């Protein structure tokens, strides 16, 4: 059995931090003095994980909100499909084309944004692996969303 650490309050890294990019070793006392506080760094790492989880949970909700708002716009614009009773929300062939494309901007944009955030966290020596998970979760969400909505784009009602 492993011996308990004498001062666990000084152990500021967790198993999630072993893959973090390591800062260059200080070459003199000034660089050592300018190094960030390990406690602040540990807080940034924990905050990065929470931000990645919040990002993954926020994107589907935002996608659905944008989709609902654009569906309301399509309904207000009207069209032959709603007048004949074949549809309730997407009322024209043009709406069947622009609505799936417009609603897919959020999931696709979230993949790009997540990739940029991941790269910036990596370059900033902050915990980046949760953002890799967020990247794949948002990519999965984008594929699911486009699989469902692009059927209308391709085939129509």
Automatic annotation (TrEMBL):
Taxonomically, which superkingdom?
Bacteria
Q: Where is the composition biased (Basic and acidic residues)?
A: 1-10
Q: List residues traversing the bilayer.
A: 52-77, 97-119, 131-154
Keywords associated with the record? Membrane, Transmembrane, Transmembrane helix
Q: Where is this region: Disordered?
A: 1-33
Name under which the protein is recorded? Uncharacterized protein
Which organism is this protein's natural source? Corynebacterium pelargi
């Amino acid at each position: 059995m492993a011996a308990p650490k004498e001062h666990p309050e000084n152990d500021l890294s967790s198993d999630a931090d072993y893959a973090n990019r390591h800062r260059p070793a200080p070459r003199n006392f000034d660089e050592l003095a300018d190094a960030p506080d390990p406690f602040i760094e540990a807080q940034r790492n924990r905050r990065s994980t929470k931000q990645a989880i919040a990002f993954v949970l926020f994107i589907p909700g935002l996608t659905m909100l944008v989709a609902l708002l654009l569906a309301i716009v399509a309904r207000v614009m009207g069209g032959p499909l709603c007048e004949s009773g074949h549809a309730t929300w997407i009322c024209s062939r043009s709406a069947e084309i622009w609505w799936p494309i417009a609603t897919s901007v959020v999931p696709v944009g979230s993949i790009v944004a997540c990739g940029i955030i991941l790269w910036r966290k990596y370059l900033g020596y902050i915990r980046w692996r949760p953002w890799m998970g967020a990247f794949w979760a948002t990519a999965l969400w984008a594929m699911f969303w486009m699989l469902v909505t692009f059927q209308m784009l391709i085939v129509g009602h």
